[in-house]
Fold:
Amino acid sequence: MTASDDGKPCSLTRFLIEEQRAGRIGPDLRLLIEVVARACKRISITVGKGALGGVLGDAGGAQGASINIQGEAQKKLDVLSNEILLEANAWGGHLAALASEEMDHSQPIPDVYPRGNYLLLFDPLDGSSNIDVNVSVGTIFSVLRSPEGVDRPGDEHFLQPGTAQVAAGYCVYGPQTTLVLTVGHGTHAFTLDREIGSFTLTTRGIRIPEETKEFAVNMSNQRFWEPPMQRYVGDLLAGKEGPRGKDFNMRWVASMVADVHRIMTRGGIFSYPLDSKCAPKGGKLRLMYEANPMAFLVEQAGGAASTGRQRMLEVQPTGLHQRVPVFLGSKREVEEAVRYHAEG
Ligand code: AHG
Ligand code: MN
Ligand code: MN
Structure:
């Protein structure tokens, strides 16, 4: 645990007050992050109930599964997590509008409540395919400024590049519930102390090792990848005898939050590249509330994030649910993967 200057445990609240005192965030952004963290606590409790809470399985009912804008069947926990985040953020006056993986369009904060200067985007529950098999899932969020003079922001006002983010984070619901956060001054981890219900700072200033021997990709898509990806992974698998001169290990959780958290903890490279199945949609993972927040967190931790052909945070968004190919993690390894793509 990373104690404060007085040697006492540092709660998320204290961390944010000290960031505000240092002039790195304002009061509204502090409130926003506290509200999102509280919502993540509620989601953690809801996820943790599993079958006992009747929260497993697909959403929808007699009329059949409910399909979201992504064309994917929603899980009950996708819908519940989305509702928890909407409800938590409605009345505080810190937000102008919010957007979610689970909603076709963004939503301005209702007129009955005051509106603030921030836009919040989130994947309320990432890794949904793992819910029913008790594997770690999580929540991912990204914070942008609401454009000046816009009273009721619409989808178009969210289409800002990742470099415009003022904060980003994820909460992984695993053996521990851990919130990982950046406000643009490093990436920090807070573990939920369930006895007092408070997130406590456990790592200040995460640093991702620049080199790695571990890659994360869904190998079942190999035959659909573009040639540069085929060559890149082929050389990883060739190990010591191959051009990389070292053996690699592989992990694939199929929850981006869990794979990224492992990389935050011990390095690695995560990739969901283009393949001939997802290429028509631009990729698998969503830019605005998966790739961009994770890219901000990873870069702030000394790592790198790319589409394979462009720095992720510099992609100019064209749609709220736009998909992109993703390479992120240990800086040197991401640079290597980008080199293979540059060679064509
Ligand atoms: P979500 O559950 O929010 O739709 O996200 C799932 C994503 C991401 O978390 C994960 O890395 C990827 O989908 C897994 O894809 P495959 O199931 O194709 O491996
Ligand atoms: Mn997701
Ligand atoms: Mn999701």
Q: What stands out?
A: The chain has two domains: 12-203, 214-343. The helical segments are 12-21, 27-49, 76-89, 155-158, 227-238, 256-266, 287-300, 331-342.
